[in-house]
Amino acid sequence: MKLSGNQRRMYLLALVLMVIAVALACTWSLWRSPADAVLSPGTNAQAPQGEEPSAPTATPQPQDGQTGAQADAKAGASKVSTIVYYQDNYGYLVPVMCSVPMEDGIAKATLNLMVQSVGNDMQAARLGLRTVLPENTKIDLDISGGLARIDLSAEVLNMADAAAEANMINAIVQTLTEFESVDRVTFLIDGQKREKLPHGTPVGGEFTRGDINLESAEPTLSLAACKPVTLYFPADSGAVIVPVTRMVYAKPDINTAVMELAKGPSREDMLESVVPAGCGLIDVKVEDGVAKLNFTGEFVNLVQNSDGGRMALKALVLTCTQFDGIKSVEIYVDGKKYDAAQGELGVPSFMNVADSIVYDYIQTQSAMLFDFE
Fold it and tell me: b/e map of 105-131 (b: 16 or more CB within 10 Å)?
């Protein structure tokens, strides 16, 4: 990418402002939590009363907080990884793994990060995202027997429209069901049971984890005959990966998922295509846990992306490795191995990690700034 002198100065100014914002956010975080040690994401802690503990897993998962004697360990293990659901400027829900201070009731603490406030909005803005709950919302939460009972204060009755209401409810359900101790969610609003919010969004009954960012179905599509498949696309900002649910007639396996991914997003003005224009999928093979994707020659144009195609490759890997038995991905172009990460792409720890998003954004902008060729 060739930049003029004025463009380079503007990029430099934007980059400096970004670095200042990151520094301020880090200072704020350190002021709130002076301890600097980090709890390993796989460590399981004793759950506070009313919440069930999560079992340790091989991949980072949200964990419940610690109490009693374990509180003495806070000085040496003060942080925990948790998954927060934000929204982008187009209303897509975006899960982000964040490192937060360990405290009693980490599930409630995670939800509180999604409430509009100066600190929360600054953190979301660093990621190019927005919070989903209105300002001053109070949250009461009780978890037992796999059921999360959440009471939201009256502020949630003042959402702008039905889309904002639906995003809020979906984000809460997705966030809570990230915890292994939760598989169902029920809602109270200001202490009262309600069937619907003012714009018609249902809040009665029990909610379970469902499809995320469901694409609008075509009028001729019979949903009864369709199956959901999850696809991953880079956001138009190039900073985060967005999961999208698409309804398909075919069997929702890896072949169908890669084929649908190659078709691109339904709204290209909101999400980026994973494969370059004109690129076709030749075939998909799975051997010994490795998904081998063979594309036409246009795939090599991926390097022309501002990030060298890194986010597109990550979206490909996430789409493939969601299926059982797929441990890594290899890319082929017209039958010849494509040299991306030595030809084999492993599984990211999570689709979006907060610290990595900020770092990658700065790296990408720096590369654009100093690309004088």
Answer: bbbbbbbbbbbbeeebeebbebbbbbb
In the three-class reduction of DSSP (H, G, I as helix; E, B as strand; rest coil), residue 243 is classed as strand
Nearest to 128 by CA among 10, 270, 15, 239: 239
Tokens encoding 138: 């109070």
Strands 227-234, 184-189: pairing is unpaired
What parts of the chain have a pLDDT lower than 70?
A: 1-77, 217-223, 340-344, 361-373
- Shared domain check, 184 and 66: yes
Nearest-5° angle of CA 173, CA 176, CA 178?
110
Q: Are 283 and 172 in the same domain?
A: no
Query: Are 294 and 283 contacting, i.e. CB atoms less than 8 angstroms apart?
Result: yes
Same domain, 55 and 178: yes
* pTM more than 0.85: no
Contact yes or no for 315/234 (Cβ under 8 A) = yes
Alpha helices in 184-333 (DSSP H): 254-263, 310-321
pLDDT tens, 161-217? 999 999 999 999 999 999 999 999 999 999 999 999 999 999 999 999 999 999 876
